[in-house]
Specification:
By secondary structure, this protein is mainly α. It has helices at residues 2-8, 11-28, 31-47, 51-67, 71-88, 91-107, 111-128, 131-147, 151-167, 171-188. 85% of the residues lie in helices and 0% in strands. The longest helix has 18 residues, at 11-28.
């Protein structure tokens, strides 16, 4: 795909080819090469001022650095993507990158910051009527409540997530919500509700 894109002479095709190569390496777990190709995609996108592909490449670099345990670098990239999405008023992407940032804060047990970011993303998903995003935000808010040992609140948000996921048959993420619900009921000692 890269060879064909190089032959075409169109930088936009090459940006896409580099980015897809990065995704390919990511899926194979070859993260150093995934970073190389995301950086190539970003360089070309920046060169032609393609803010859409710049955002995708920056966000993916944040994701890759997170996988490598480089949380400070990861947050830096996600915040850079957030700023770019804000400038484009891309509400959908803003919501999803806020989720990524919140996940990092949650891993660091900074529950106040993660909760603020999850709630902010929740409001954006409500505005854009993004059902998938809503299910993710509700479930993450529930998980923060569970980690704070506020199990009744955790169940409320996880059930909101479950109700939405059941309504549009999101089988992939449905298992995550069901797992989180089971863990919460287990902590409550309520084995019958699992």
């Amino acid at each position: 795909i890269i060879y064909d894109a190089e032959k075409s002479g169109y930088k936009s095709e090459l940006i896409y080819a580099f980015f897809m190569q990065s995704i390919n390496y990511t899926n194979k777990g070859i993260l150093d090469q995934a970073i190389v190709y995301s950086e190539k995609s970003l360089t070309l996108a920046t060169e032609i001022k393609d803010s859409i592909w710049m955002g995708y490449a920056i966000e993916h670099l944040g994701f890759l650095n997170g996988l490598l345990g480089e949380t400070s670098i990861s947050i830096k990239y996600f915040k850079q993507a957030h700023k770019l999405y804000l400038s484009r008023k891309d509400q959908w992407r803003i919501g999803h990158v806020l989720i990524r940032i919140a996940e990092i804060y949650q891993e660091k047990n900074d529950f106040n910051e993660s909760m603020c970011l999850y709630r902010e993303s929740l409001e954006l998903f409500k505005q854009t009527k993004d059902t998938s995003g809503l299910t993710i935000a509700y479930n993450h808010i529930g998980k923060v409540f569970r980690e704070k040992k506020q199990l009744d609140s955790a169940l409320v948000y996880m059930h909101k997530s479950l109700d939405l996921r059941n309504n549009f048959q999101d089988q992939y993420y449905l298992s995550y919500t069901l797992n989180d619900l089971a863990l919460t009921y287990l902590e409550l000692g309520d084995l019958n509700s699992m």
